[in-house]
Write a structure and sequence with these properties.
Pfam families: LacI, Peripla_BP_3. One of its GO terms (molecular function) is transcription cis-regulatory region binding. This is Transcriptional regulator, LacI family. It comes from Devosia limi DSM 17137. With about 350 residues, this protein is α/β, with parallel strands linked by helices. The chain has three domains: about 10-55, no CATH class; about 65-165 and about 300-330, Rossmann fold (3-Layer(aba) Sandwich); about 170-300 and about 335-355, Response regulator (Rossmann fold). Helix content is about 40%, strand content about 15%. It has a six-stranded parallel β-sheet, with helices on both faces. A four-stranded parallel β-sheet has the order 7-6-8-9. It has a three-stranded antiparallel β-sheet with strand order 10-12-13, covered by helices on one side. The N and C termini lie far apart (about 65 Å).
Length: about 350
């Protein structure tokens, strides 16, 4: 019977690399503290021996989990998939794991989050939900449970936290101006959920573009929504009930735009023959819907990567003093087939990226 092969140890790595075990530990946990030549020797020795770091034991010794917690407002929303993928990739490159949690309505969300840190399951929080109360988040990040926190996607006004987002107001104005440039003068807007910061920013951008063009934005053309497809479908009913209908619609996200188009189609209306529509986000389905959806493409991968990078930088010792970091990324206007000049139908428009 063959004896089980002994697992390689840090001592084996140190012997082959001709350095101390302390140097191996520094090279693996904080490579910036050793020279490039030493890092190369240790890396080659790790590859030769097949040594793997016992992360669980290391976490127990250092009282850290080397894990970041990502909190979402709605885990069902496919918008977050690309962001989560980028967070996971950046975290893995830095030697961190990722936990994902959902905000549940009717529960105390901050207490739910705090439990992760009290039980040492996570070291820092990446928050993709701007609906939580600022004073509760400040309490979460202070004594007795100190939690490094970075906000992404949804900005929390007047917060002291690092933030990574896109310029929603500017992008919404650009979407609306695209419809104006096509000759549309009656332009409606499907709103996001009431009280949501993204709803407010995108509505402000829509109104800004309408005002700058000298166009009226009738309250009847503002349709309630929830960022869910069903609310876009319901908005189509409100649209059809109007005596004077908009010739174009800016939806605050792609899901509502697609729901709206579906509702119109049930009543024999087609896009863009009867109404042009533009969305926001550029979900994967936007390209493959009929017609392919003109939309605003958020840099979701960059949001996830930069947010994870900012949080891990804090965990790795970056000073938290001074002004909070605020990264605002540009979005792209993606032209497809769901928008056309007023009174004109272009069924075969190619995708165009407007930077």
């Amino acid at each position: 019977m063959t004896a089980a092969r002994k697992a390689p140890t840090i001592q084996d790595v140190a012997r082959i690399a001709n350095v101390s075990t302390a140097t191996v530990s520094r090279a693996l946990s904080n490579p910036g503290r050793v020279s490039e030549a030493t890092r190369t020797r240790v890396s080659e020795a790790v590859a030769k021996t097949g040594y793997t770091l016992n992360q669980a034991a290391r976490s127990l010794r250092q009282k850290t989990s080397r894990t970041i917690l990502v909190a979402l407002p709605d885990i069902r929303n496919t918008f977050f998939s690309t962001i989560l993928d980028a967070i996971e990739r950046e975290a893995a490159l830095r030697g961190y794991g990722v936990l994902v949690t959902n905000r549940f309505s009717g529960h105390d969300p901050v207490r739910h989050l705090k439990d992760y840190f009290r039980s040492n399951r996570a070291d820092g929080l990446l928050l993709l939900d701007g609906s939580l109360e600022l004073d509760e988040l400040i309490d979460l990040t202070g004594s007795p449970v100190t939690v490094p926190l970075v906000v992404a996607c949804e900005e929390i006004p007047n917060s002291p936290f690092h933030t990574v987002k896109t310029d929603n107001c500017f992008a919404a104005a650009r979407a609306t101006r695209h419809l104006i440039d096509l000759g549309h003068m009656r332009i409606g807007h499907i709103l996001g959920p009431e009280g949501n910061v993204l709803t407010a920013e995108r509505r402000a951008g829509y109104l800004q573009a309408m005002q700058e063009a000298g166009l009226a934005a009738s309250p009847k053309w503002l349709f309630p929504g929830s960022f869910e497809m069903e609310s876009g479908y319901l908005a189509a009913s409100h649209f059809l009930a109007l005596q004077e209908r908009p010739s174009a619609i800016f939806a605050a996200n792609d899901e509502m735009a697609i729901g709206f188009l579906s509702g119109l189609r049930e009543h024999g209306l087609e896009c863009p023959r009867d109404v042009s529509i533009i969305g926001f986000d550029d979900l994967a389905v936007a390209l493959h819907y009929a017609p392919p959806l003109t939309t605003i493409r958020q840099p979701r991968a960059a949001i996830g990567r930069l947010a994870a990078e900012a949080l891990i930088d804090i965990l790795e010792g970056e000073s938290r003093q001074g002004e909070p970091l605020r990264i605002v990324l540009n979005s792209e206007l993606i032209l497809r087939d769901s928008t056309a000049p007023f009174g004109v139908h272009h069924p075969n428009a190619a995708e165009i990226r407007c930077t």
